[in-house]
Design goal:
Elements lengths: L4 E6 L3 H12 L4 E7 L3 H10 L8 E2 L2 H5 L6 E4 L4 H12 L3 E4 L7 H14 L3 E3 L7 H11 L6 E9 L14 H4 L3 H4 L1 H11 L5 E9 L29 E8 L4 E7 L8 E8 L3 E5 L3 E8 L2 E5 L11 H13 L8 H20 L3 E2 L1
Parallel strand pairs: 1-2, 1-4, 2-3, 4-5, 5-6, 7-10
Antiparallel strand pairs: 7-11, 8-9, 8-15, 9-10, 11-12, 12-13, 13-14
Helix pairs in contact: 1-10, 4-5, 5-11
The structure holds nicotinamide-adenine-dinucleotide (NAD).
């Protein structure tokens, strides 16, 4: 009989309801066994919304949830600064961990997380939205089969014209978020680029970061609905970052991320240049491959359609459960450590005005 994994869900906000619970609703090998949110009214709303009984195990302190008997893993959907803290406590209790991105808000924290996973022998996986899309899977296979040759450089970014999430709330408060669009959006596209490049190790980073839109009222993106706005709240993170990463294999990656900037349209993209072909994946133009055959330039447009695939959260969670069942993990914690090293070095470089060696 198929094992049913018992999950404790921590943080009952937008992404827990909007993506994790809908994924669980379609998966028959998971059972929601306990919930936690620091705000009691959110627990009550959640119970009503998902028809949970009055005595369903529900806690305002995540330490209590970790003591629930029979749990297999926790799914962490709290603000960023808590991912590593809760993950370490859960791993130390012998639980597996799936957490939302970003992995952690500092290199010190992400290192503690990896060490706790190593010590416990339990699985630690962090949400990597873009690895399980139809387009990205196609491109990964295309690259692995050698069709792009040696990938020696690339660009990636997620640039919003306006789309600051939860202005004044935790997203824009450095102590709770770790940073602005670089950490919020950077993890998505930098991860996709590096994963497609074959996970080279980053060796140096240089970058700039700016805060120019803390006072604007204009909001034209559905993304500004994330988190909770707070009138007269804190805004001490960047709203735009640009930078450059060098890797141990000689490759490089140019990056740019904004929650707000004066551009025409929002776009998220990864563009890679290989010796045999280049490729671009973008929310605007889909997947395109640029090559040359029989003396002619060729553009290839695979008809892979992300909307026809399994939604990203569900695909990640299904993969996580496969790993618990013995499958080879696609994400390993050292990749999270490298990611946070890049982000932290970007902020250091922006502050100090020079390149940082990792
Ligand atoms: N992968 C994606 O596509 C994606 C998209 C959006 C958000 N996220 C990530 O998901 C996380 C949550 O984002 P969100 O938009 O749902 O934010 P949110 O503010 O809507 O939800 C966070 C929830 O955590 C709760 N919380 C805060 N402190 C807590 C504590 N100590 N214990 C238990 N609960 C606590 C809050 O009360 C709130 O209900 C963030 O890390 C964010 O980066 C990921």
């Amino acid at each position: 009989m198929q094992k049913k994994y018992k999950v404790g869900l921590i943080g009952l906000g937008g992404i827990a309801k909007g993506a994790h619970m809908s994924a669980y609703g379609r998966m028959d090998n998971v059972e929601l066994a306990a919930i936690c949110d620091i705000v009691p009214s959110k627990i009550e709303d959640f119970k009503k919304r998902y028809h949970l009984s009055d005595d369903f195990p529900a806690f305002t302190d995540y330490h209590d949830l970790l003591n629930v008997e029979g749990l297999d893993y926790v799914d962490i959907c709290t603000p960023n600064y808590l991912h590593s803290v809760i993950a370490v406590d859960a791993l130390n209790k012998g639980l597996h961990v799936f957490t939302e991105k970003p992995d952690a808000v500092s290199v010190a924290e992400v290192t503690k997380m990896k060490e706790a996973a190593d010590r416990s022998g339990k699985t630690l996986m962090v949400m990597r939205n873009n690895r399980h899309r139809n387009t990205t899977r196609f491109l990964k296979n295309y690259i692995s089969d050698g069709h792009m040759g040696d990938i020696y450089c690339g660009r990636c970014g997620w640039i919003r014209r306006r789309g600051i999430p939860g202005k004044g709330g935790w997203f824009t408060t450095k102590e709770q978020s770790g940073g602005g669009p670089l950490i919020d959006l950077g993890v998505h596209m930098i991860d996709l680029a590096i994963w497609l490049m074959g996970n080279p190790t980053p060796v140096t980073v240089t970058g700039c970061a700016y805060t120019k839109f803390a006072d604007t009222e204009v909001s034209d993106s559905e993304h500004s609905a994330f988190g909770e706005k707070k009138a007269n709240g804190i805004f001490d993170v960047e709203d735009l970052a640009m930078g450059f990463i060098r890797f141990d294999n000689g490759a490089c990656l140019q990056i740019e991320f904004s929650w707000a900037s004066n551009i025409k349209n929002e776009e998220n993209f990864v563009e890679l240049r290989g010796t045999k072909a280049g490729a671009k994946i973008s929310n605007v133009s889909g997947l395109e491959i640029f090559s040359e055959s029989y003396g002619q330039l060729t553009d290839i447009k695979p008809l892979a359609d992300d909307l026809k695939g399994i939604p990203q959260h569900e695909a990640n969670l299904r993969h996580f459960l496969d790993v618990l069942g013995g499958a080879e993990p696609d994400f390993v914690p050292v990749q999270g450590v490298n990611m946070i090293k890049i982000l932290e070095a970007m902020y250091q470089s922006a502050e100090l005005g020079h390149e940082i060696a990792l």
